[in-house]
Design goal:
This protein has 13 helices and ten strands. The protein is of the alpha/beta class.
Amino acid sequence: MPDERKDREHQFGGEWTTVKLKVLANYLQAYTTALKKSRFQKLYIDAFAGTGYRDVRRDDEEDSPQSTLFPDIAEPESQSFLDGSARLALQIEPGFEQYIFIERSPERCAQLESLKSEFPGLAKQVDIRQGDANAKIQDLCATDWRSNRAVLFLDPYGMQVEWTTIEAIAKTKAIDLWLLFPLGIGVNRLLTKSGEIPKSWRRRLDLLLGTTDWYDDFYKVETMPTLFGDDNERVVKATMETMGRYFANRLKSIFAGVAEEPGVLRNSANNPLYLFCFAVGNERGKDIALRIAQHLLKEVR
C-alpha cells in the first residue's frame, strides 16, 4: 500500500471492529435485497464516517471522555488498512439510492470525497455532509420520510450521541438503527464506585440517556446492621448488565422493535467496550428486520 495512503488511513480496534462491520455489511445486504422491488427510496446513513477506512486514533474528539480520562483503552491491536463502514456500504449489491456520510472533520470529509472516484457509478448518489453528527441527523430526520426508508449506523468515538438524536431517528418511523452504546468504554467509567459523580460527567450521562433519573437505577443504598446495634449504609453500583438492560429499555420506549440481545463488543482482554444495539422504527417491517438482526448478532456473543 502506498505510503501516502498510510498517512490518511487508520484502523480503530481489532477483532471486535471486524465483527461489527461484518454484521453491518450482512444486514445491509439483506436489507437492500428485501427492499429491492419496493417503492421506497433506500438510504444508507453513516454518522461518523471517518475517512472511509478504519480509524486508529480518533484524537480530534477533544471532548471525548476516553481521550482525557481513559488513556488505557488505546490497545496494541493489529494494524492494517481495511475498509471502514462507508466503503463497505458502497460495495453492497443491490445498492442504495443515496449514501449520506456525516463527518465533523473537514479533512476527513475531503478524504471521503475520494470515494466518488473509487465508485464512479455511485458518485452522484454520495452525499458528504460536514458537521456535528447530532445536528446533522436531527435535521435529516425532520424531513418528510413517507417515501423513504434507511439504515443508519451510529458508531460514535465515545459518548457523543445524544438521546434527542435517537428520539429524532425513532420519530421518522422509517429508519433501522445500528448503534454502538459505550457501555464499558464510557458509561461504566463515569459511574464511580462511590456514587459521587462530577457535575460535568452527570451532564454527559444526562444527554446520552435522555433523563436525569438514571442515578436511582444505577445506584442502590444497602443498609446492614452492625454488631453494635446500629446500621451501616453503603452505596452499591449497578452491574454493566443492568446498565445495558436499562439502555435497551430506553430504546424500547421509542422504537417499534429492539433486538432483545445486543452484541457485546470486547477488547483483547475480554473487557466489554460497547453494546451493539439494533432498533427498527417501522412497525410493519419490524418482524423481518428483527429476525435478521438477531440472527446476525449471535456472532457478537
